[in-house]
Amino acid sequence: MMNTLYIFTSAELKSHQLAMLTENDSVLLTQDASYCVSRFVDLKGDKYLLDSCAQARDVKAPAPFKMVTDEEFVALVLSHKTNITW
């Protein structure tokens, strides 16, 4: 089981939120946070972008992001010990 899944929903990111991320954590960008992919590219850990949100906002997933479906989103939540949504 993975550590923490941080689910970002807003484009208004705070530096203390990003500072909490470790290489054992995962990030999932949804809703307007999809616009912020460039702020996460160099951070450690697994990175995901919710496909339906990215398509609605015409956002492409740069490497190392992985596009996930709604079903894969549920699997991500279940595969982590903790989930935090901002």
From TrEMBL:
SUPFAM superfamilies: DsrEFH-like. One of its GO terms (cellular component) is cytoplasm. One of its GO terms (biological process) is tRNA wobble position uridine thiolation. It comes from the Bacteria. Coiled coil: none annotated. This is tRNA 2-thiouridine synthesizing protein B. It comes from Pseudoalteromonas xiamenensis.
